[in-house]
Specification:
This protein is an all-alpha fold and 199 residues long. The protein contains ten helices and no strands.
Length: 199
């Protein structure tokens, strides 16, 4: 395996760096996007009476806002009058969506540039091969060996890009699912709090 990596030349370094960063992002996002962290069961089971107690204590309200993404949305709703609740809810959901998508842009970039780095490595390798063949007249055996070595970077780039792209799409889908759940939950709370203000 080390021989294959060394055969790819210096461009294997950024390609392997991309793979390390991609794995780190995937592990961090899969851990951070667990449903029990984004929308904890204790907040999903929160009653109106409990929410009113939270509203009466600024310290508890601040804890709610920092508790989880769902807590941030509910905390924003709790501090707003009935007239502006919908706009505040949408702003809070947009902020939470931005937080949930952290590092996903970087993951998408890695999925895009990995095969390009591989192709660049192959082109550089081919230039070296043809230069050495022309200058040394090494024949077809040297040419074939050089081409196979040059293609190592393309294979490495694609091997990183394909799983990274799949992980990127799966994580985006997971974020979308969580945002739908947060939207539905916050909509229910909006209706409860509006009814409470009107009573």
């Amino acid at each position: 395996m080390i021989d294959v990596i060394l055969a790819g030349g210096w461009l294997m370094l950024p390609i392997l760096s991309c793979s390390v960063v991609a794995v780190a992002i995937c592990v961090e996002r899969y851990w951070s996007l667990r449903q029990d962290l984004v929308a904890p069961p204790e907040l999903l089971a929160l009653t109106l009476a409990q929410m009113q107690r939270v509203l009466g204590d600024p310290g508890t309200l601040e804890q709610l806002r920092n508790h989880s993404p769902l807590g941030a949305v509910l905390g924003a709703l709790a501090q707003t009058d009935a007239e502006h609740m919908e706009s505040v809810r949408e702003a809070a959901l947009a902020s939470v969506a931005h937080d949930l998508e952290t590092y996903l842009t970087a993951l998408g970039i890695i999925a895009l540039i990995s095969p390009l780095l591989g192709i660049l490595g192959t082109v550089v390798g081919m230039i070296d091969v043809f230069t050495s063949v022309v200058s040394a007249s090494g024949g077809t055996a040297a040419l074939a060996g050089g081409i196979s070595t040059a293609l190592v970077t393309t294979a490495a780039g694609l091997s990183i890009a394909i799983p990274t792209l799949i992980a990127h799409r799966l994580l985006l889908r997971k974020v979308d699912t969580l945002l739908v759940m947060l939207d539905e939950t916050s909509q229910r709370w909006l209706m409860r709090l509006n009814a409470e203000h009107e009573s």
